[in-house]
Amino acid sequence: MTNESPKPSKPLNRRQFITGVMKTACGVGLFGLGLGLYSQRASSLPAWAIRPPGAIPEDDFNGACIRCGLCVRDCPFDMLHLAKLGEEVPTGTPYFIAREAGCEMCEDIPCVAACPTNALDHALEDILDADMGLAVLIDQENCIAVQGLRCEVCFNICPVRNAALTLDMQHNTRSGKHARFIPVVHSDHCTGCGKCEEACILDEAAIKVLPRHLAKGKLGAHYRLGWEQKRQAGEALVTPDVEHRYNLPEGMRYEHGGQGLIDESAPGQPESPFPGDPLETLNRKGAL
Amino acid sequence: MKDFPGDTASAEHGWLKAHKWLLLRRFSQIGVLALFLAGPLAGVWIVTGNLSASMTLGVLPLTDPLLLAQSMLSGAWPVLSGAIGALIVLVFYALVGGRVFCSWVCPVNLVTDLAAWLGRRFDIRAAGRLSRDLRYWILALVLFFPLVTGVIVWEYLNPVSMAHRGLIFGLGWAWTILVAVLLYDLLIVRRGWCGHLCPVGAFYSLVGMRAAVRVSAEGRSRCDDCTDCFHICPEPQVIKPALKGAARGRGPIITDLNCTNCGRCIDVCSKRVFRFRMGDRRPIEVPVELPDAQSHRVRTHPFS
């Protein structure tokens, strides 16, 4: 293409030409191998770095993103960063750190609108469909709601409150008379915006946004939940249920709801087979 | 001390005239950077993004076509604004000369020009030799990577985007790459990065294959063989066919793909041999050069 050799008039013979091409190919190949291996290492995203809404799966993202930073600039809350060389995040790609500033979930999603390459997928039109990660109440020992204290900060700041994050009222066994309001994340509604992690009042957040593949377990493909199958089919798929019967004395039945054994022969108050005075039982002779 | 390229021109035509295109070029390079930096530094958001893709005043999208090509090779489909941006860039450089990007816009040029200046100033001769075609091999590699690995691997090294992105969004360790380029150019291979390896320049050289703006050695009959232009030129191999090709019937227009249209040859020539030409891609013969009036118009192949 260009006249590089100092004496372009001197013709190359075939041997020199082939040797030259082979040398160059080997050099470029080695360089490419090094760069390729380095890029494999450099392409992994640490769990604390969260991609902007609409980001396509990480493997594809590193191919689609051209590292222009337009999403960073168009974020009205200025919470996105562009990774610098030397950071753990692939160089030049956008991310945010939930603990520093979570995504405010703008309805018009300006970061996605700014992306020139669909690395942030323009098919995302409703920010509630965003999937940046999944919040997990990862420290269930230090979360003060679990200690039985009132907090609910994560619940109150959640932009999808009552769907993505609900409070589960449980009995406080420590005091015996109070309730605990445990934050529970629902993966089908959580967008991974990270506001809960940002707002957590602990020194180190007890609730954290993780990449979905780290946060979620997966049931074996062969598992079938009997009650789900039954609900879908409208009836049991195996042998029809036989109503369970206790072998009870005549005129008696058992109530699972808490009442226990009921003597249907005697109207009104069910009569206990045990005497009212425990001492009488203890003193009784013979088999019970 | 050795005569510095351009000293004679400065003496004969004045310093300003002997640095006209250099000053304009620095103005362009720094102006582009300033437009990008006005936002983050002064809050004046004229241009957002960086050289990889940018948006000017919210209406003009510009996209690096090489990067977009890599993105598409990895399997991504660009948004309309991204594709239009790339098209605008392609058309612009196809007209003004592909490697105008290198000499008038690219921030790495400031580094490699510094290396070249230091080399001349302190008479440091980088002895390394590389083929100037190596850049086309690397360009092929750069395009091959996203196709096979699905990752824009080049962006983990690319000094062009590292430098520009770094200045605007935070440098991190990107300065080490720029220092490496500087030292490599200064000590290992003269004009080693931009002139031998950079696949971005290689890509733009192909874009500008049929460019309208060219440097022409129209006054080549006045050439007194001072070699200042060869010493100052970042791609000296492009000059010879045009400057010394009269005897072989070659036209005076520099048609080599890798002429960056930097205009330094115009500056440093005390005989005012060179000037920019517009429009006419066909090399023309200046009558004085052929006293026998055999004005056969010869068209040189762009790949000469």
From TrEMBL, chain A:
A Pfam family annotated for this UniProt entry: Fer4_7
Entry-linked Gene3D superfamilies: 3.30.70.20
Keywords: 4Fe-4S, Electron transport, Iron, Iron-sulfur, Metal-binding, Repeat, Transport
Domain 4Fe-4S ferredoxin-type per the UniProt entry, residue ranges: 55-85, 93-125, 181-212
Location of the region described as Disordered in the Swiss-Prot/TrEMBL record: 253-288
Entry's Gene Ontology molecular function annotations: 4 iron, 4 sulfur cluster binding; metal ion binding
Protein's UniProt name: Ferredoxin-type protein NapG
Organism the protein comes from: Thiorhodococcus minor
Taxonomy of the source species: Bacteria, Pseudomonadati, Pseudomonadota, Gammaproteobacteria, Chromatiales
TrEMBL record, chain B:
Keywords: 4Fe-4S, Electron transport, Iron, Iron-sulfur, Membrane, Metal-binding, Repeat, Transmembrane, Transmembrane helix, Transport
The UniProt record lists the keyword Disulfide bond: no
Stored PROSITE patterns: 4FE4S_FER_2
Matching InterPro entries: 4Fe4S_Fe-S-bd, Electron_Trans/Redox, NapH_MauN
Single GO molecular function: metal ion binding
Domain 4Fe-4S ferredoxin-type intervals: 213-244, 250-279
Species classification: Bacteria, Pseudomonadati, Pseudomonadota, Gammaproteobacteria, Chromatiales
Ranges annotated as spanning the membrane: 30-55, 75-96, 134-154, 166-187
Organism: Thiorhodococcus minor
Protein name as it appears in the record: Quinol dehydrogenase ferredoxin subunit NapH
Pfam (any one): Fer4_5
GO cellular component, one term: plasma membrane
